[in-house]
Amino acid sequence: MTLSIKPRVSKKYIGFIVIFNLLIVTSLVNVECPVCQGTGLVSAPGMENVEIITVKSELRIVGVSMGHKMCVYDVELSVINNGPDDTEGYIKLALLDLSKGDEFAKDSVLDEAYVTLEVPGGTSLDVTYAVLFRVRAYFIRSKTKIYAEVVYVTDVTCKGTGKVPLNSWLLVNGFKDIFLGLGQEQVQYETGGMQFE
Ligand SMILES: [Zn+2]
């Protein structure tokens, strides 16, 4: 006669081990962040579909105040919303000093301003803004250009890496709108709390 001793492991316990190991394994695997689609950056919802086609500008008014020139430009943007939904977000405008380079860079930027933009889905339009830039008095107007871009901020979900662990992907994907909302709040914060009208 033999005695067999069966190990008593409850099913619940096995279940726990399986899930626990699955969590460990999936936490080591990184997948594309569903909020920013791997770019590490977020804009206001739908603004990622907005393309700025051309930027035209004309200097309207120049005033001098405390050693600075206050320059009001008419800035005309031709934009297109390639997405199906209406969108509303921020555009960053920068006055560039072309003698320092014609790309947006720390050295070439004389001043920056933010404007809001609203574009219906699948629509292209021209919008004109009167924008004030404050520059040092010695700037030469013929050597300037206005640069424009859609405002993006670092995605708080993936901290700008564009990757999230697989085990949080489901959670993040399920609450994508909330995470996108956080990004939106951050855009408002970084643009000085400007509100949409
Ligand atoms: Zn992300």
Helices and strands, with pairings:
Blueprint: H1 11-28, E1 30-32, E2 41-42, E3 50-65, E4 68-81, E5 87-97, E6 109-119, E7 124-136, E8 144-150, E9 153-154, E10 163-165, H2 166-174, H3 176-190
Antiparallel strand pairs: 1-10, 2-9, 3-4, 4-7, 5-6, 5-8
Global Rg: 26 Å
The distinct bound ligands, ions and cofactors come out as: zinc ion
Q: If helices are DSSP runs of H or I spanning 4 or more residues, what is the number of helices? A: 3
| Beta-strand percentage range | 35-45%
Structure explained in plain terms:
The chain is α+β, with helices and mostly antiparallel strands and 197 residues long. The protein has one domain (37-197). The chain is built from three helices and ten strands, in the order αββββββββββαα. The protein has helices at 11-28, 166-174, 176-190, and strands spanning 30-32, 41-42, 50-65, 68-81, 87-97, 109-119, 124-136, 144-150, 153-154, 163-165. The protein has a three-stranded antiparallel sheet with strand order 3-4-7, with no helix packed on it. The protein has a three-stranded antiparallel sheet with strand order 6-5-8, with no helix packed on it. The termini are far apart. The model has no long low-confidence stretch (mean pLDDT 83). Zinc ion binds next to loops.
Characteristics:
three-stranded antiparallel beta sheet; binds zinc ion; alpha+beta; 3 helices
Summarize the structure.
The protein is an alpha+beta fold. Helix content is 21%, strand content 42%.
